[in-house]
Amino acid sequence: MHILRSRIVLLTTLFVAIGFTCFPPEAATDELPRSSRVGPLRIPLASYERIPISTVQAHPDRYQMREIRLAGLVTSIRTELITNRLICGRAHERTKLTLEDDTGEIVIVDQGACGRNQSRLKAPMLQMGQHIDLLVLINTPTSPGALGSTLEATIRFLDLVRD
Questions:
Q1: What is the distance between the alpha carbons of residues 46 and 36, in angstroms, rounded to a whole number?
Q2: Deepest in the core among 2, 82, 145, 153, taking most CB within 10 A?
Q3: Model's pTM, two decimal places?
């Protein structure tokens, strides 16, 4: 019985070793591009449903204080220096970019050093004409007496579209 158990362990070890040497790690990967992982749970960005810009603009209340995924083409970028230290305790850059998809366009804000963009890629690094995939927080601040609400989208995670 002991000899049989030893042979099983030996054969299993041998087969595992042969499998590791015969098949390089690249052979085990799939053909799909890897998605960036977002947030404390490291959820793949691609697992978030991509919402069309026109849907967000038509029903901003549905997305109030929610993180949603948008994707599109960067059509403009404006970076400004914010010197008001009351906002986050120090001067910082704020970048506004216009994102366009097949359904419309939206202005998105990256608060720079005061924001919550967790990605390595920051908005000032982008160029016009690049396709991006991003996670944004939607906020529709309302003030008393305002007829309509404005839509604010701030970047939580930013990545280039992977082909």
A1: 8
A2: 153
A3: 0.71
User: What is the four-CA torsion angle of 39, 40, 43, 44, rounded to 10 degrees?
Assistant: 50
Instruction: Report the DSSP beta bridge partners of residue 72.
Output: 132
Domains of the chain: 37-160 (2.40.50.140)
Strands annotated E in 47-121: 67-82, 92-101, 104-110
Query: What residues does 94 pair with on adjacent strands?
Result: 80
Residue 158 burial class via C-beta count within 10 angstroms: exposed 0-12, middle 13-18, buried 19 and up = buried
Per DSSP, 119 falls in state S
24-72, pLDDT tens digit by residue? 444 444 444 455 776 666 777 777 889 999 999 999 999 999 999 999 9
Where are the alpha helices (H) located in 24-156, listed in sequence order?
Answer: 53-58
48 vs 11 pLDDT, higher one:
48
Cα distance between residue 98 and residue 87, in whole Å:
23
CA dihedral 58, 76, 78, 88 (to 10 degrees): 40
